[in-house]
Amino acid sequence: MLEGPLKYELLHKDKHSNARRGRIYTPNGIIETPVFMPVGTNGTVKALKNSDLKDIEAEIILGNAFHLFLRPGLEVLKNAGGLHKFMNWDRPILTDSGGFQVFSLRDRKISDEGVLFRSPLDGSKIMMTPELSMEIQMTIGSNIAMAFDECVEAGAERKYVEESVDRTFEWAKRSYKAHTKKDQALFGIVQGGFHEDLRDRSLKQITSIDFDGFALGGLSVGEHYSETERILKHSGPKLPEDKPRYIMGIGTPLIILMSVENGMDMFDCVLPTRMGRHGTAMTWEGKVNLKAGKWKYSTEPIDNKCDCYACQNHTRGYIHHLIRKDEILGKILLSIHNLRFLINFVKEVRKAIEEDRFLEFKEEFLSNPNNVY
C-alpha cells in the first residue's frame, strides 16, 4: 500500500550518462519514467477524448491552476469533487501552479506578497499568492501540485534574477506551509535564469525544503538552445536523486534527449498538439508538413513505425485533404499521432537506458538532421 501521496523508485542508471529509469507511484496509478505528459490546460487535452488518451497510453496529464481558477472556478470544481471526477479521468494529474501564465500577462505587478493582475475574463483585480495557488490546486485535487514561483524572462538583468531567486524561495516556503492536502504531492521549482551560480543558490534553497519532487523552471522561455543545454548540464544532475525530477515546458525530441541525458524524468509541452492543429506531424524521420501539396496522392501512413489510430486507419493523402479543408478531424488525428509518437519515443528511451545504450540511441536518432528541431 502506498504511504503518502507519492513514491519514487530508481530502477536503473545508464552506465555511460546521467540518464535514469524510474517509476512513480501515486494513488491514481503508476508512472514509468522518463515520461512525456500531455498538457490539458483547461481540464482537457485539446481535441482528444479520455479514451484517445488511454489508447495512446498517456500515464499522466497536466491541468493548469490559473486557467481552471478563472473558469470553471473553484466552486464548480468543489461541487464536482475535484478535477478527476469533473473530467472523468482516473489516471494521475499534475497541475502547474499558474506562475508561468500569470507572468506572461502584460498588466501585472509583482511584489513579495504575490502577483497582482487583472482577470483576462472581466478585468477584475486578482492577487495571486502562494497561499491562493495552493488553495486552487488542493481544490483541483491533482496528484502532483507545484509550488508558486516566479519565472523570469530570458533577457532579465542579473540583479532582478537574484531578487527573483530569493522571492521564489520565500514563496516556496509559504507554498509548503499552506499545502495541507496529505494525499497530494508538492514539487518545488528551481529558478535562477541563465546564471549558474544563481541556479546553484536556488537549488540549495529549494532542496532545503522537504518537497516530494523537484523541477527546473525558467527554461524554454525564448533562450537559444545552447543556453538551455548549458543550464541543464549544470543543474539537472545536482537535483536530489531519490525524488522525481521534472523539467517544465519542453517537448521536442532533441531537448527531451538532452534532458534525459542530464538526469531528468518528466517533461510536458503543448507542442505536439499545437503542431497537430497546424498540420504538422512528428515522425521518426523528422517533422512532416501535411499541408504541403506533395502529399495529395499519398497512400502511406503518417509514420510507418507508428501504431496510433491515425496511422493504422488513414493515409497522408486523406489527412492532407482534411487539413487543407480545415476539418476538425484532421487536427484530431494529428494530435493523436503526435502524442503517441512522443509517448512511444520515451518508451524507447526507457528501453535504451535499461540496456545501457542511451547514448547510442541518442546518437542514432540525431544522426538524421531532420530530427533536430
Automatic annotation (TrEMBL):
Matches recorded under SUPFAM superfamilies: tRNA-guanine transglycosylase (SSF51713)
Pfam families noted in UniProt: TGT (PF01702)
tRNA-guanine(15) transglycosylase-like domain location is 18-368
Known EC number(s)? 2.4.2.29
Segment RNA binding: which positions? 249-255, 273-277
Q: Which GO terms describe its cellular component?
A: cytosol
Report the GO molecular function annotations.
metal ion binding; tRNA-guanosine(34) queuine transglycosylase activity
**Cofactor: how bound:** Binds 1 zinc ion per subunit.
Q: Which residues form the signal peptide?
A: none
User: Which processes are annotated in GO (biological process)?
Assistant: tRNA queuosine(34) biosynthetic process
Q: What class of enzyme is it?
A: transferase
- The domain of life is Bacteria
Q: Which co-factor is required?
A: Zn(2+)
PANTHER family (alphabetical): QUEUINE TRNA-RIBOSYLTRANSFERASE
Q: What does this protein do?
A: Catalyzes the base-exchange of a guanine (G) residue with the queuine precursor 7-aminomethyl-7-deazaguanine (PreQ1) at position 34 (anticodon wobble position) in tRNAs with GU(N) anticodons (tRNA-Asp, -Asn, -His and -Tyr). Catalysis occurs through a double-displacement mechanism. The nucleophile active site attacks the C1' of nucleotide 34 to detach the guanine base from the RNA, forming a covalent enzyme-RNA intermediate. The proton acceptor active site deprotonates the incoming PreQ1, allowing a nucleophilic attack on the C1' of the ribose to form the product.
Subunit composition?
A: Homodimer. Within each dimer, one monomer is responsible for RNA recognition and catalysis, while the other monomer binds to the replacement base PreQ1.
Q: What is this protein called?
A: Queuine tRNA-ribosyltransferase
Q: Which organism is it from?
A: Marinitoga piezophila (strain DSM 14283 / JCM 11233 / KA3)
